[in-house]
Structure formats: C-alpha cells, structure tokens
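Batch job 17 of 40 flagged for manual review because the log was empty.
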Amino acid sequence: MKMKFKVVVSSVFAISLVFSAITGADHHGNVRIYKLNSKDQFVKQKWLKDREKPGCHDLRRTRKANRFAQTGFAWCTVYSGDACEAGTELPAMWGGKKYRTADIDISQPQIKLIKGSEWYLNSEKKNIRIGSWRCEYEDGAENQG
C-alpha cells in the first residue's frame, strides 16, 4: 500500500512539473484596474479577461478607470485606443510610497508601468477612458505583436 502511494505521489509531482514547464508557470502576472465610484472609493473592475497573460488585451468596450495595478510583469502600458495602438498610451503617476528602484523617476508620469498597485491614470480623482493594455515579462518584448 505504501509503495502504491509513493508511486501516485511521484507521478502527480512529475506531471505537475511537466505541466509547469509547458505552460510557463514560472510567471505569475496579474493586472487589476480600479474605477472611482460616486463616493470616491476605488472599485476593482471584474470584467478583465486574460489579466494573467502577457501581450496586448482589448477591452470588450472602452471602460473608465482611475487606477492601474500590476504584479509579476516586468512592465505594462495602458492605452486609450484599441489594439494597443501606438500614440494612445496613457501616462500614469506613481502614488505610493517611495519606489524601491532607481530605474524610473516616480516624480514624472510614466508609460511603462513597473510592478505596483498605485499607478494613477488621472490625478484629479476622475475616471478616464481606457481601451486596451499590454503587459510583458521582459523588457525587450514591447516590439512584439
């Protein structure tokens, strides 16, 4: 009985390792978008499809948002246009505490949003229209389809 249990556990472990290698499970990205409600409270948008996947993602229709958060990706960019159209990038300001890296100047608006939960798309506490977003695991991926 003990031998069968060890074989089953070993098989499950081996299958999970193979599945992780095939699916690229070493990356765990996540995107969250928030809008302000009538009481100036942030409400997480639940309509995001494929928010864990890298690449360009269109929204089903243009939505309004105020705050963008991402974890696990090297960078993300938010666009007012569909299909991550060049020229429609939306700058965001970091609103959190001092950032842990010297790679960016958080006192200036940014288009490449690195990991963090307090990227504000509008400093005037208003929602703005967004049409798509792109996230990538590596810095060199921004020129890929």
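Reviewer: the log was empty due to a logging misconfiguration, but the result itself is present. Confidence is low (pLDDT under 50) at residues 12-25. Unflagging and moving on to job 18.
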